[in-house]
Amino acid sequence: MAAMKFSRQRESIKHFLMTTRTHPTADEVYLHVKEDFPNISLGTVYRNLNLLTDIGEATKISTPDGGDRFDGRIEPHNHFLCKTCGRLLDLDLDMKSIEEVNRLAAENFDGLIESSSTLFYGECSDCIKKS
Asked: Between the CA of residue 104 and those of 76, 79, 116, what are the distances in Å?
């Protein structure tokens, strides 16, 4: 595989993902990066997000509403989606518990499970306080 050409736009996208905990959509990344690169296109943002995901420097989180979110935190962790406000939050769990779930899944699957991703649903503490 040929070496990837350096891109200031891609580095800006990656930096934004690594410094935010909001799990932005591609549109939100586009609006942020556009501040520094006014001529950047939404297509360029999508291509770079997909590339960062493909090379393991970002994670794509698919949500039930069809909107993908992106995360610069690439170490294994799970997420919580608030059904009221739509916020996507990191959910840090004991990874031994997750490894146990992966082991149980592998015992009941005729194939090779390499990883898993769990999305928990409910209501965040902010929304509970409001109601």
From this structure: 18, 20, 12
Strand order in the sheet with 78-82: 88-91, 78-82, 119-122
Q: pLDDT tens-digit profile of 39-82?
A: 999 999 999 999 999 999 999 999 988 789 999 999 888 899 99
3-state SS assignment for residue 25: strand
Q: At what angle do helices 26-34 and 42-54 cross, to 10 degrees?
A: 120
Find all residues with CB under 8 Å of 44, minimum gap 6, and list them.
Answer: 9
- What is the Cα gyration radius of the chain? 17
CA distance linking residue 80 with residue 124, whole number of Å: 8
Across the chain, what does the average pLDDT equal?
Answer: 91
57 close to 14: Cβ distance less than 8 angstroms: yes
Quote the pLDDT of residue 93: 76
* DSSP codes, 44-99: HHHHHHHHHHHTTSSEEEE-TTS-EEEES--SS-EEEEETTT--EEEE---HHHHH
pTM of the model: 0.86
